[in-house]
């Protein structure tokens, strides 16, 4: 790499990184929420069977 990159290039790189991080975080949260709901339903079913 020759001289220092222009401010425009730096801004572009930062924006891309922020977008990727934001998407990754959203996907992770969505997966966690789905897993949590499944676990709760499973626990409720197990408890109901035990009570019966």
TrEMBL record:
Top-level taxonomic group: Eukaryota
Compositional bias (Acidic residues): 7-52
Region (Disordered): 1-52
Protein name: Uncharacterized protein
Provenance organism: Scyliorhinus torazame (Cloudy catshark)
């Amino acid at each position: 790499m020759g001289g220092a990159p222009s401010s425009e290039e730096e801004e572009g790189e930062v924006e891309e990184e922020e977008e990727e991080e934001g998407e990754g975080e959203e996907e992770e949260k969505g997966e966690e929420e789905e897993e949590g709901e499944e676990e709760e339903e499973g626990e409720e079913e197990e408890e109901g069977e035990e009570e019966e």
